[in-house]
Amino acid sequence: MADTMNVGIYIFENMTMLDGFAPLEILSFVEQFNTFTFAQSKGPMRSDSGALLTPDYDLESCPPLDILVMPGGGDVLPQMTNSDVQAFLKRAGESAKYVTSACTGALILAEAGLLDGYRATTH
């Protein structure tokens, strides 16, 4: 049996809930995965559908990531321009085994430099 891998799903205000919580639902069933959410702060926030989301960790307490999952949303510019978030993603993503995204989450990863040298697509 393989070692446990930390799967961190970043959540943020006005994110598309399905982009983050569909992977959370599926990946949480994999026994080798420790799947959790994290955000800039531990405070609750609203998704684009109005659902209240509360992360498991903030940037300071987030465990090292083996897999980074970045959801998207209608307006990802606040995440792309937040220097604290971008610095964290750059550090975490460079040491992660896998860096993934859904939809416009790819733009957030690209801003952190995590797609440099790779071909990527989104809609």
Q: What is the fold named in CATH at topology level?
A: Rossmann fold
Count of helices?
4
What number of structural domains do the residues give? 1
The proportion of strand residues reads 15-25%
| CATH homologous superfamily (4th level) name | Class I glutamine amidotransferase (GATase) domain
Query: What strand line-up does the widest sheet have?
Result: 5-2-1-6-7
Helical percentage? 25-40%
- End-to-end CA span: 37 Å
Q: How many E strands?
A: 7
Helix/strand class: alpha/beta
Q: How does CATH name the architecture? A: 3-Layer(aba) Sandwich
Question: Strand-and-helix sequence, N→C?
Answer: EHEEEEEHHEH
Q: The biggest beta sheet, please?
A: 5 strands, parallel
CATH C-level: Alpha Beta
